[in-house]
Write a structure and sequence with these properties.
Elements (H helix, E strand, L loop, with lengths): L6 H26 L10 H54 L7 H21 L1 E2 L2 E2 L2 E2 L9 E9 L5 E8 L18 E2 L15 H6 L4 E3 L11 E3 L8 H54 L3 H35 L4
Parallel strand pairs: 3-6, 7-8
Antiparallel strand pairs: 1-2, 4-5
Helix pairs in contact: 1-6, 2-3, 2-5
Length: 332
Amino acid sequence: MSIFQRTSVDAALHIVRDINRNLTQTQNRVSTGLRVEKARDNAAYWAVATTARSDNKAHAAIQDALGIAAATMGTAYTAVAAASDLVSAIKAKLVAATEDGIDKEKIDAEITQLKAQLRTVSESASFNGDNWVVLTDEDNPTRPKQIPASYIRAADGTVSIDTLSYHIDLPSTGVTTSQDARYMVDDRSGGTGEYGALTSDHFATELGASKNYVMILSKGGNTTGQVEIGLTATTSDSEIDEMISIADAVLRQMTSVGSAFGALERRIDLQSEFAKNLSDSYTSGIGRLVDADMEAESTKLTALQTQKQLGLQSLQIANASYDTIRQLFQNI
């Protein structure tokens, strides 16, 4: 004799299986915090979120680059500000040298120390191995100094990196002037120090000075005919006047350089803030697509756990009923 009394058992088993499937899904959402973890969960949302995550990592890299650039720019600005104070001090010493009976050689000793400090300040203005105020043979003064500023994904899916630049505005003729001295020191072996405010003789040339005065000599450039600003016992008042005028012109140019660095530093700060806000927006947008509602999922988890317990009890009751029927026919 056969007994086919499993309808209630099968129904209870089916319910338990459904509950277990939903419970596993809900537990996974609670543990990962995601409602779209794999492409099979929602292919469209998964694709958008995956691309957005990749782009957000690029934005994070841009933020890091901007942080380094801000530190580099801050170092450069600090050096220019310090050097401007030193040039002002040299100018004041030269003015003092015009007094009758002054010991010019003693003043020159002070000027010599100030010039040495100018060199020290310039060469020390390096952050992460990058010095924006000293040009060497590794640098191209006609090529803009560039800072990664933003990661851009176009509508057609192509990507690009936008940059912030600091460069010399060379005239179309390619002939440099004192206005092109956008650095403090130009030590390149292929030049004459013309791109450094402290090493350029353009200031003396443009002022019609009797000598090609420079604040300090370039280490590697062709300095033939150039003379460092300084005093001897026989330095004439007219020569001192020329040096004062040149020091003043150098100071004005360094002020322009400092202003350019300051403006670029401010732009970097603004771009850094924007990049941070943009990254936050990306994170929020990704969350809207794929994140699970933790409050709802937690409530659902509790409900499913209760349903599972009830389902198991129903299955036990169904099995018990089956056993009772089986026992009735056991001795037949």
